[in-house]
Amino acid sequence: MVNHKKLSYAEIVGIHLKRRRQEFGMTQAEFAETIGLSEKGYAKIERGKNAPTCRTLSKILIKAKISIDRLLQDVEEDKHLLED
Fold this sequence. Notes:
- With about 80 residues, the protein is an all-alpha fold.
- It has a single domain, classed as Orthogonal Bundle (434 Repressor (Amino-terminal Domain)).
- It has five helices and no strands.
- It has helices at about 10-25, 30-35, 40-45, 55-65, 70-75.
- The longest helix has 15 residues, at about 10-25.
- The protein is globular.
């Protein structure tokens, strides 16, 4: 039987942030250091366990060279994955 667990909004955002970080060839530790977070704190954002503050999200998006519009568009495209 296949598990069709729906994801939270934070988890989907984290998936997209992780993908973008990996495109830059950076580890979580490297990326976290460049934005002033601990590796553990950043890892929780990528896993969707913690939602970033607006300030932290801004730092992430600037470093990842992605606009908030693009991130939200990517999440919207994956809205079928969202939990009810």
